[in-house]
Predict the 3D structure of the following.
Amino acid sequence: MADKVFIALQNNAEAQPVIEAIVEDNPQAVVNETPGMVKIDCPGRLVIKRETVEAKAGREFDLQEIQINLISLGGNVDEDDDEFVLMWNV
Amino acid sequence: MAKNKRLGLKEKYALMTRGLDWETTYQPMDKVFPYDTYEGIKIVDWDKWEDPFRLTVESYWKYQSEKERKLYAILDAFQQNNGHMNLSDARYLNAVKLWIQGITPLEYAAHRGFAHAARAFRGAGTRVACQMQSIDELRHAQTQMHAFSHYNKFFNGFHNFAHMRDRAWYLSIPKSFFEDAMTAGPFEFVTSIAFSFEYVLTNLLFMPFVSGAAYNGDMATTTFGFSAQSDESRHMTLGLEVVKFMLEQHEDNVPIVQAWLDKWFWRGYRLLGLVGTMMDYMLPKKVMCWKEAWEIYWEENGVALFHDLGRYGIRLPKYHEVAAKEKDRLTHELWATLYQFGNALGLHTWVPDDEELDWMSEKYGTLFDTMYKPRLLYFRELEEKGERYFNNRLPMVCQVCQIPVFYTEPDDPETQSVRIVEAKGTKHHCCSDGCADIFNREPEKYVQALIPPQQVYRGEAGGATNIFEYAEWLHLVKDVDTGEYRGSPDNLNWDAWHARQKAPQSGAAV
């Protein structure tokens, strides 16, 4: 199986639409909760789509807003206006 | 009429970060940027540098100020509501003392180091990224001091961390780590801190430990910890970017980068022994043990990163297999050492209670039950007889990582691991093959290392002739700031405050 990428977010109200969007757009994503924090692992590639986050949050969303509640990540980052992607190139 | 289209993130980043600098003409570029070539790293095209977050200065300030507003609102609420009373136990704060004494000064050192790196590189994109990181690190040092200042009102050991940082033997472990990095060239500095330390290793501090802080009721540490870590995500990405950039620019860079990755993996791992010990011994309520954290954040996530770099010819760092062999014992060996030398520490140590010992047995199994639990129980027995064990000397420390030479052989947990290295006619002691290799690669650097226990015994610690005078020179009060937790003022105050809270309201003032 491909190595896992991950993203960790603070487990607060603002981060919920992002977490829900990740779960919806990445069927292989596994959500691990520890106190204060949500860590999401996914084999090979994980995408956060602006459209999905906006649908969950019910408002416009700039993907750079995830900086505010981001704790950590693992993987090569590729970000544009519509998608924030984490991936391993192997 | 043409539609006035908003600039996309990638276009905006390109416009705001490219073509703003120039080739100097009054002086050659090599004289303006004298430090970015001597390490042997060959850069063909600086414009190939990419910042994956594409953060412009404008959005940097926007998001950082948002983070600060959130953080300080929570710190205010924590202080106004006497948040310290909701901690799981006052023992927990010893981890926080180690943080402000040992880690906060590293944030400040990182601020200085990145400011230097931001001047050293001739590529403008690289300079901007280092400059932002330098500002972030200053923010981290400041927010940590602000968050911990509340504890300083109620607990001992927080009062003089800046004074202690340059004098305390155990604080030279983190201090020497950063000074080693800062005295290297700019490429090695960024590889050591942004890649090896931040990408590969700080997850272990800021994720499981800070999550543990949340579990132990420390909202202040949790909030700045996670707020700082959101900056770290950017730094990690910078670290990975600089490593990929060097590897893609020239094949001659590969062996240089590999040697740095070997060195800084091992140095970072040694430093993290302190974090592991904080997790296993200083968190009264446990989230995960060191061994589990190592398996998730290094063996799974860290190794994935190295697999990704495999396409450039990078292999796993040397001695990663030794770290795997040590994961069952690292924290137990380190805690026993801190416990013994407690009269020269600005924090308290103790023997864990039965519930904690059971947790360690469950997590660490037979080795813990046969090697480390009996020792802890023996310490407890002595303490109950009124003979709490202290080793009232200072330990011999490793010439490279400065951790006491007390770890054991990778394949034999009953034999002390010592390596003797020689340079310029003098012998030096190292704790492991990893540290001995680092010494032997640059002996002229490490023979100069300032080793605090040696300095103390030479009379360079205010003339102190024993460990108690040395502790005074550190501005530590015996048995108040140092020594055993049980019966310390922190312990007695904590019990008294909670007894008062629980007492029936008879109207009598206490």
About this structure: Chain B touches chain A through 42 residues (CB under 8 Å).
